[in-house]
Amino acid sequence: xxRMVMTLLTGLYLxxxxxxxxxxxxxxxxxxxxxxRIYMAAWRGCEEAxxxxxxxxxxxxxxxxxxxRDAKTDKKALTGFIDEVKQTRPDLVIxxxxxxxxxxxxxxxxxxxxRFIGDIPSIFMVVADPVEAKxxxxxxxxxxxxxxxxRNRVPEITQLKAMLEYRPFKRFAIIYNEDELNSKLxxxxxxxxxxxxxxDLVMLPMPLKNGKPDPADIPQLIQxxxxxxAEFLYIGSSSFISVHDDIYTExxxxxxxxxxxxxxxxxxxxxxxxxxxxxxxxxxxxAGYQAKRMLVDKMKPIDLPIAALDRHSYVINMKTAAALKxxxxxTLLSYAEIVNQPGQPGQSPQPGQSGxx
Length: 357
Known about the structure:
Layout: H1 2-30, E1 36-42, H2 48-59, E2 64-70, H3 75-88, E3 92-96, H4 97-104, E4 122-125, E5 147-151, H5 156-166, E6 171-176, H6 181-197, E7 200-205, E8 208-209, E9 212-213, H7 218-227, E10 232-235, H8 239-243, H9 245-255, E11 259-261, H10 265-268, E12 274-277, H11 280-295, E13 307-308, E14 313-317, H12 318-324, H13 330-333, E15 337-339
Parallel strand pairs: 1-2, 1-3, 3-4, 4-5, 5-13, 6-7, 6-10, 10-11, 11-12, 14-15
Antiparallel strand pairs: 8-9, 12-14
């Protein structure tokens, strides 16, 4: 009898214990996971890459709060961003562009690392050449314990070959901004690519007034490029030129020179003729994927390769092609994306019309 009672009591204890475990599991499941805090330092608003990142985080189910801070192209604002990051210590920092990344993360060989965000993990995006800028040591690994990122630039040699496929030429020009390190570095990369292909390059730096470029100087530089026999203009890596690409492309149309750009929006939203580019929305989504690997999969930044898109877009502005009477070869039409066709609504200006609002 005693054995039967003990057996019954033991069974009841195990049953109640099982219920207790189940209740504890249900309570844990009902308790929401504390969201990760992601701090994004933007340079010129939450544009396509920023929105692409946010969309990926939301769609992939990563429990995260994304805090966006906009520097509005003011380097001085970045000092405040660094202070805020150090005080709040988010789980991850996203830096947009070379200027923001260099100011907040620094180079791997900077003598005073205390000026930067330090041991807080970060991912950079929209950086033209992170190796040349010394943000990372290689594309296989950043070589830095807390830094990883993405690369979105189509190689300059590929850009020039695409321009040659559209229209053979012997001389072209690039206008670059010496106030942007990425723009200066990119101009040198373009020069090396031009030398490799045996093309003459006219290099025109933006004049600096009190250390800053003035968009009003762009038309004069484009006229100088025309006077020096440039048959093509190329917009390389430059946030300044990209922001003012309406002024740039309008001036180019007036002198009859086609513009090729590394920015898709120069074609889709302005009047550049062609672009071979990575869609910024996809660049942002790629950075979101890197963030997921770090936050959810617990990958260390130094163990992540610098991620790259494996597909790019070849975009042609047919309204500009018609204005310049430079229609694309039929071979390109089989795979290029055609935008702003004549007779359809579009934002590209015709010669003599302003592309500004």
